[in-house]
């Protein structure tokens, strides 16, 4: 990856003080671009953000799209969506274990790279990680100490009232894609 022009060595303080467009991960001193920009990705991200914000008080949560999450001393990841308990104080960079981190797959994403992100979130103490594939209309739930499980009907965050049905989540995307035909 050292030859990859999209990955650049940057000191941590410079990374924290820089506003990247779109924001980027910082891993062991290297700024790394993420795959973003697809309409299917944006549709799912927007739907989830709206649902979580609409139910924020009921579910006692706060949702942050494109949130920097410090998973370890050497890793700062940009979660597509990060959900924390309402009792957690606001932080510019999330350092308190989130209830949920969501990764929405783009065409260029490789599952091996996504698995590394999932592992990072779980090692920092996240309750759950959702990996959503808009093209295949399926999703995976990851929890500490368990293998990632494929889900076809709904996603949950264990120990919370959070439940999202995949049919509801993908309905707008289905409508958008139907309009193309």
TrEMBL record:
Residues 25-167 form the Putative restriction endonuclease domain. InterPro entries: Nuclease_put_TT1808, Restrct_endonuc-II-like, Uma2. CDD domains: DUF820-like. It holds the Pfam family Uma2. This is Putative restriction endonuclease domain-containing protein. The lineage of its organism: Bacteria, Pseudomonadati, Acidobacteriota, Terriglobia, Terriglobales.
